[in-house]
Amino acid sequence: MMSYKWLKSAETISFEVADHVARITLNRPEKRNALSLLTLQELNQAMLEADDLKQVHVILLSGAGKDFCAGYDLNDSYGGGADTANAYDPALYRSRSGTLDDDIWTMERQQDLSLVIPNLHKPVIAKIQGNCLAGGTDLAFSCDIVMAADNAKIGFPAARANGTPPSNLWLYHCGPQWAKRMLFTGDTISGLDAARIGLVLESYPADEVDFEAGEMARRIAAVDAEILATHKRVINAQLELMGAMSSQRMALELDARAHLSVGPRRSKFRKDMAELGLKDALKNRDEPFGDGKVKLRARGGA
Questions:
Q1: Domains and CATH numbers, the chain
Q2: Tens of pLDDT, residues 95-112
Q3: DSSP E strands: which ranges in 27-179?
């Protein structure tokens, strides 16, 4: 087994390189690949590893099992908990439950881990199947190309009561009206309809998306890495002239401010989390929205 420079004995992702393609897979299928702090750290290392390896021309990001990523792990540090015992006194350090500035600072450190993707020199393809929700969309929309199964479920339901996406690239994928429509309601959209509005590049039947994403990676990998880097960095510079990366800091700070909301929906969610647990809190949050699915009448949506 190859000994990698950055990636050390990963627990929550898998990493493979073949035919100039690095395949990075979120590997917590029992948790629907929810993003813990450890997952974000290992993902960051894997992305840097792939960008550093000379044999890699393109990166394919996916999720093991039925889902791409169901969001941030609310039982981990992102949700105010922790999945490992601390070997230090946490009272000496910032936490998301501290001041507004503490919340911003800790989210910035997490955002740094995932927003490495746009800054890589090599292209990154996200392949979505099953659920791609909340933090899963933060991750997918940071990639250069997003491909989805027709029946994938894409959205940010947490926008209904919890805050705004801390990494908010919706506008740059589907335009202002659709970005607002999706966040105002927290509704989800199928992969098929996401392709129709430009939120993802294309969608395919569930049993074909693996092949199609692999084929896209193969075709891109046929180009020299230096040429691919030139294409990516030119287009990313144009996005930055539109404020794409600068706006991510603003989105994060506004998300932190939203966490201070004392409105009835935000307050009820926090109360339900404390008294009933995550499952019932999510059920009560989403119940008023019915099935919460976008249906494209004018475009013959599924």
A1: 13-289 (3.90.226.10)
A2: 878 899 999 999 999 999
A3: 58-63, 124-128, 131-133, 145-149, 153-155
